[in-house]
């Protein structure tokens, strides 16, 4: 949501309500509501089998035309988890957000190159889950109940399937210690 719209909405809220919350919190909540609404509109109006020109003719009434055009153009490509890490950890000028993020990106690139080299010589290597394996190798397994780079609410079962052992501890680590 553009800052000018957030400021206008904030002014409207302050006129109507006496809130003891910071402006930052209100703007953050407005941004989330805006994104949620755009998602709902996209689900309602976006049809994959329609041409781009026809989609642009049927802009939802609650959505700004330039945002609809941007959403349509961007939704064509599918972004993997490695690409998502790269996109979300770079500044506008293309440099990494932090030196740690830069180091992680280098390790991810090296691991991906290793896997691709192995896959080119060995046909038995499955390239479908390569992003998942690379992320786990470089960053290690994270806490249970979430999937890195997939936002809030995405569980490992939803993302990997019910038979996934990606985030389960292995053998000796899973056994509790008892001292008697």
Automatic annotation (TrEMBL):
Q: Which InterPro entries match?
A: Probable_transposase_24 (IPR004252)
Report which superkingdom the organism of origin falls in. Eukaryota
One matching Pfam family is Transposase_24
- Which residue ranges does the record annotate as region Disordered? 160-180
Q: What is this protein called?
A: Uncharacterized protein
Species of origin: Gossypium barbadense (Sea Island cotton)
Its ancestry begins with: Eukaryota, Viridiplantae, Streptophyta, Embryophyta, Tracheophyta
